[in-house]
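Every protein is a chain of amino acids, and every chain bends into a shape of its own. The protein below has been through that process, and both of its lines are reproduced in full.
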Amino acid sequence: MDLKDKVVFVTGSSRGIGAAIAKQFAKEKCNVILNARKEVPSQLVEEITSYGVTCEVVLGDISKADDCKRMVKEIYVKFEQLDVLVNNAGITDDKLMIAMKEEDFRGVIDVNLVGTFQMTQPILKKMFKKKSGVIINLASVVGLHGNIGQANYAASKAGVIGFTKSVAKEGALRNVRCNAIAPGMIVSDMTDKLSDKVKAEILTQIPLQRFGNTTEVAQAAVFLAQNDYMTGQVLSVDGGMGI
């Protein structure tokens, strides 16, 4: 896909990986729609528009079906098209299984998995009619390999991977591609909170001996949007962590 002048919607894009993905698509001359539940920093909007593209903000909570439907309507009123959907929004609520309550489990599933479904379905219908479109879902290496204290998060991201493969098979009937990215340890607010000892232990599991950065994940998203012969794939951006 030639990305110039395409319209890209990135959920959960006020900061972190989502913001990096939005900026990377803007560098490719895409018009970008940002999303958050409450607020998107004006500085981010200004940075994206500095690339000579249009940037809009659509607020809403992907875990709420009514919000998803409203956001889709707003997008198509503003742009009359959507070429790339990036399902990035997600949360964590880490606890050991023996301490995890049902609401802790359901809360993460509702955002990460159900939210991805609720955001994808109405947009997929539009893409089917156009017989064109790309969907990119943010999964995680945790969804591939599991992790202590993240049963809820791992289950949600494993679900996203299965969802991605199913949507890819259905989407191929109408020239709509769907892939996933599985980031490993990416420098973020979460990794900043880790102690030096924990960071050192994690690094022993990463062949490249460093954490990744948000730009490297964003570059993978652009690649998946551009490559017309990739669908149903899970692209790990993890420094070799899954080897």
Notes: The mean pLDDT is 96. The beta strands are 7-10, 31-36, 55-59, 84-87, 133-138, 176-183, 234-237.
